[in-house]
Every structure is written in C-alpha cells, then in structure tokens.
Write a structure and sequence with these properties.
alpha/beta, 7 helices, single chain, 7-stranded parallel β-sheet
Amino acid sequence: MYVSADFEGKKIVVIGGASGMGRKTAEMVVAAGGSAVLVGRKGHKLDDAVASLSQSGTAWPVPADLADRDQVAEAQKQLAQDHSDATLLVNAAGFFTPKPFLDHEVEDYDAYHDLNRSTFLLTQTVVRGMIAGGKGGAIVNIGSMWAHQAIGATPSSAYSMAKAGLHALTHNLAYELAGENIRVNAVAPAVTRTPLFDKVFSADELDGAMQQLSGLHPLGRVGTPQELAAAIIFLLSDASSWTTGAILNVDGGVMAGRN
C-alpha cells in the first residue's frame, strides 16, 4: 500500500466515503497518520467504514443522503461546526446507470445533477474552512473516462454530462483557489470494480460483465479501488505540490487507444 508521511495530523473529508475508491483513500490517509470524515448515506456501510477506520486511527461519520437537499444542508452545518480544520477533500460519491439517450426520464437526469449540486455545495463548505484556516489544502474529484468519450456498450449521456461538469469544476476551482494555496485535481477512471457496478449488473452477471469490459482496456483488465486510491493519494500529497487543474486518466490505457 502506498502511503505518505505527509498526512500526519491532517484531516480528510471524503464525500461518498463509505465504499469503493472513497473508502480506500480514507484508509490510506488514516494509515499514514491522518484522520477521516466520511460523508455518506446513513446505514451499515457508513457505520462499518467508520468502525474499521477507527481501529487504526480516528474517523467520524457525517450521515447524509446526497439526493436530499435538507440532509445536505445538515451535513454542511456539521462539517462547518466540527470539521472546518480539514485540509483534504475527495469528492467520490457517484452512481452509474447506463441507458440510451431517448430512454432517459427526467428523474434519471435530475439524479445525476442533484449529485453535482450536493458536491458543489459541500465543497464550498469545506473550502471555506480551508481558507479560514490559512494552511491551504488539496481537493481531488473523481471524474470519469465517460466524460471524455462515449462507449457503445454503456450509453451514458446524462452520466457523462454530469462528470464533464465535474471536470469543468476542477479546472475552475484550480484557478480560483490557487491564490489560497488550495490545489484542485481530478482522476478519470475507466471501468473499475467498485460497488458502483453492483447496481448495474446482477450478482450472477457481474463477473462475466467485468471480464467482457476488461477487453476495452489496452492493459486487458478493469481497475481496482486500490489503484485509483493510489493515484488520488498522489494528488493529495505534497509529491504533487506543483500540480493543479489536472485531469489524470487512470484507465488501463483507454484514452491512449481503445480495443
């Protein structure tokens, strides 16, 4: 596991930190001496993640359904009151429901962009704390390869539009916050085996689907949360101290050329 002593005494907020890339990133920060605040839907996943992290360090839950505006407002209050000292932020919340453009209902579109709304507002809250603390900070957004290009097997117009917006937010915040010594970058994964795909494929279809999708990638396989978290950790750490506004493709080579 790649960790960095740079995280000694630092606090990270992970939006969508109960599972997948977000949880793995929080684990790596805590293993390197930091502490973690996990924002996610109330339930056993969030409780389990916080309990696991607490065995080796310090972690706090901030329960919120990011589709519920009232709960997001409460999460903003809790972050401002209790965790304004955080200098690291990862926006990892997401879901993926591929369907053809003409099959999208209003509810499908709204779900993606409601998530972007919550990401925007929660990021505002954390950034206000970073600026008030005067120590700078680092933000990593989890974008997507689908924001760069379409894949015939997974038609994803609304998802791609939302993730492209997150890429644009990355560029804008990198510019606006540079004067506060706050760096803002993103990773753009291709197919990565996380709980995101548990809702796309049934349990008996998942292994076969992952094997089939492996063929898209020049490296011949899908990614893992660990591999994405390692890239996120690099962008959060002082090893990338002169990097801001970058969209880092961590995609098995898909953007170099797709099979």
